[in-house]
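RECORD TYPE: inverse folding
INPUT: C-alpha cells
STRUCTURE:
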C-alpha cells in the first residue's frame, strides 16, 4: 500500500504573527492536511491490491461526490518536488466498465500510458473512476450516460481545490467515448476557458446511430461475411437501430415484433444492455450533437486514431479536427501506424479484431507527451 501524499497546503511566511503565529499556522495546516488525507480514506478501497506508486511522484487517492450522491474515486498525481502550480491532464474515459487505475503490473495499454503521464515532471494527472468502477460507488452496468457525464463534470469542478493544480491550464485527454464527448465536460463558458487543449484518442464525431451502422458493417466483414451477406445484414441492422435509437423503442419490444432481427443483436439474449451499459446510455448518446460541441472548441486539439482501430470510423478524427478548424487553424488529426482503438499495438487489422495484441509500443505515449509539452510548455513560453 503506498503512502498518501496530501501536501495540499503550502506554508507561507506569516506577517505580524511572530514565532507563535507561524507555529500555530503550521499546526493548522498540518491538521488540514491530515483531514484531507482522511477524506480520501473515507471512500473504502474495494481491491486488495497495492495502490499506484512511482518514484518521486505524490499519488493522491481522493473522491468527489457526483450529483446523484455517489462518491467517485479520483486519482491525482504530481511531481513530488513541484514548486509552482502545474498544468493538469484531465482524463475523460472510455465507455466500458474498466478502471482508470494503473497499477505497477498493468499490461493494459491505456494504463501504461497513464503511468507514463503520471511521471511527467511538468504536469499533474487527474483521473476519476465512473460509478461502480474501482472504489467508486454505484453500478456501472446500470448507469446511464447523463449520470456518468455529471460525474466527470463534478470532478472537473474540484480541480481548483488542489493548490498544486493550475485549474486555468487544463488539457483534456478523451479516450474512446471520452474522445467524442470531451468538450461537453466543461459545462459553462467560464469552465470552457479553463481548458487549453483537447487530445482525442479513438473518438467519435457523428451521431451514435451512424456509428452503430458503421461499426456493424466492419464487424460483419471482419467476421468473414461476404460483401453480399454484409449488405443483406445491413438492411436489417438499419431497421433495428432506427427503431431503437431514433424512435426510442425498447430492444426487447423490437425483437419480439421482428424476430428475424434477433441474430443481429450483439448481446444475444440480453436485451437490456449493450457493451455492458444500459440501453438508455446509448439513447442519450444519440441525443448529443458532437459536431456542435467540437465546433465550439477554440483551443488546440489533437485527434489521434489507430490505423487498426475497427471500433471507430477512419474519418472521425479528421471530422473533429475540421470542426475545430472552422474557428481557427488550431487542430490536426493523425493516424498512428499499428495502433488499435485506444493505444493498443497490433500487427494487423485482423489481429485487432481478435484482440491479439503485440507488445506495448511506447511511441504512443511519446506522441501524447510531445503534444502536451509543445502546448503547455513550448507555446506558453
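DESIGNED SEQUENCE:
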Amino acid at each position: 500500500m503506498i503512502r498518501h501524499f496530501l501536501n495540499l497546503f503550502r506554508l507561507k511566511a506569516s506577517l505580524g504573527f511572530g514565532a507563535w503565529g507561524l507555529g500555530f499556522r503550521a499546526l493548522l495546516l498540518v491538521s488540514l492536511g491530515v483531514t484531507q488525507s482522511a477524506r480520501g480514506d473515507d471512500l473504502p478501497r474495494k481491491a486488495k491490491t497495492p495502490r499506484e506508486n512511482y518514484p518521486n511522484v505524490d499519488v493522491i487517492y481522493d473522491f468527489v461526490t457526483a450529483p446523484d450522491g455517489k462518491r467517485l474515486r479520483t486519482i491525482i498525481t504530481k511531481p513530488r518536488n513541484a514548486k509552482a502550480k502545474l498544468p493538469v491532464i484531465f482524463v475523460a474515459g472510455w465507455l466500458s466498465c474498466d478502471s482508470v487505475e494503473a497499477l505497477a503490473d498493468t499490461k493494459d495499454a491505456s494504463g501504461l500510458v497513464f503511468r507514463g503521464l503520471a511521471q511527467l515532471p511538468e504536469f499533474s494527472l487527474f483521473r476519476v473512476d465512473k460509478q461502480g468502477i474501482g472504489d467508486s460507488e454505484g453500478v456501472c452496468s446500470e448507469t446511464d450516460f447523463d449520470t456518468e457525464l455529471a460525474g466527470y463534470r463534478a470532478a472537473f469542478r474540484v480541480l481548483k481545490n488542489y493548490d498544486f493544480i493550475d485549474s486555468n491550464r487544463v488539457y483534456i485527454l478523451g479516450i474512446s467515448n471520452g474522445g467524442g464527448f470531451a468538450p461537453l465536460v466543461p459545462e459553462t463558458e467560464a469552465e470552457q476557458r479553463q481548458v487549453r487543449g483537447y487530445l482525442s484518442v479513438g473518438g467519435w464525431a457523428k451521431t451514435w446511430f451512424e456509428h452503430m451502422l458503421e461499426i456493424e458493417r466492419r464487424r460483419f466483414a471482419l467476421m468473414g461475411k461476404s460483401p453480399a451477406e454484409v449488405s443483406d445484414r445491413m438492411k436489417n441492422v438499419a431497421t433495428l437501430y432506427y427503431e431503437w435509437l431514433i424512435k426510442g423503442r425498447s430492444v426487447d419490444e423490437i425483437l419480439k415484433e421482428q424476430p428475424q432481427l434477433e441474430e443481429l443483436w450483439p448481446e444475444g439474449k440480453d436485451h437490456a444492455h449493450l457493451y455492458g451499459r444500459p440501453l438508455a446510455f446509448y439513447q442519450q448518446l444519440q441525443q448529443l450533437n458532437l459536431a456542435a460541441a467540437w465546433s465550439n472548441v477554440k483551443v488546440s486539439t489533437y485527434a489521434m486514431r489507430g490505423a487498426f482501430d475497427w471500433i471507430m470510423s477512419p474519418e472521425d478524427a479528421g471530422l473533429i479536427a475540421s470542426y475545430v478548424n472552422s474557428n481557427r487553424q488550431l487542430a490536426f488529426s493523425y493516424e498512428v501506424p499499428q495502433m488499435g482503438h485506444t493505444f493498443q499495438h497490433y500487427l494487423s487489422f485482423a489481429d485487432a479484431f481478435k484482440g491479439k495484441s503485440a507488445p506495448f509500443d511506447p511511441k504512443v505515449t511519446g506522441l501524447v507527451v510531445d503534444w502536451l509539452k509543445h502546448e503547455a510548455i513550448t507555446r506558453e513560453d
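NOTES: Confidence is low (pLDDT under 50) at residues 1-40.
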